[in-house]
Amino acid sequence: MLSRFINESIMPLGSGLNTVLDFGCGPVPLLADLLQEKKYHTEIYDKYFFSDRKVLSHSYDAIILHEVAEHFRDPKTELSALVPLIRETGYLIISTLQCPESRKEFNSWWYRMDITHLSFFREKTFKYLAGVFKLKFLDTENQNIFIFRHN
Q1: Is this model's pTM higher than 0.90 or not?
Q2: Which label site among 17, 20, 79, 113 has the fewest CB atoms less than 10 Å from its CB?
Q3: Angle at 35 between CA 123 and CA 98, to 5 degrees
């Protein structure tokens, strides 16, 4: 699954992507390990498991939130701390499931049942956030991967 994520969302961005922050990597930073194998210089941060805030004082070619944004209590505040860390030509890459359109589907949606999932998104939400943070929203083939680039 993570290899597919890398192949679909990171590799197509090209060779200018050297430094990456895996934000919210969890207790086992497998994505970061796979990125390192592919020669990306990767830093990790996780509020609970890898909480050295020094990595949040550097800038990156890409910041990846893989299955993390849904855990944000206040996505706008969280992103306002991360977006300034993205280099001028860099990317923000978010992977999360899009929530169903109808209230009935949402109420029975398995993803909502996880008590650690606090925020839910649709493409429209990400387009709004792109405007707020002056990022360009890029189209992807995968409906659960959202890529932004500095304008």
Answers
A1: yes
A2: 113
A3: 15
Domains and CATH numbers, the chain: 2-7+17-66+73-150 (3.40.50.150)
Express each pLDDT in 11-34 by its tens digit.
888 878 999 999 999 999 999 999
Q: What is the number of alpha carbons within 13 Å of residue 135 lying toward its C-beta?
A: 27
At 101, which amino acid appears?
A: E
pLDDT tens digits for 88-130? Answer: 999 999 999 999 989 999 999 999 999 999 999 999 999 999 9
Q: Which helix (H) or strand (E) holds 88?
A: strand 86-95
Q: In what order do the strands lie in the sheet with 135-138?
A: 41-45, 19-23, 60-66, 86-95, 145-150, 135-138
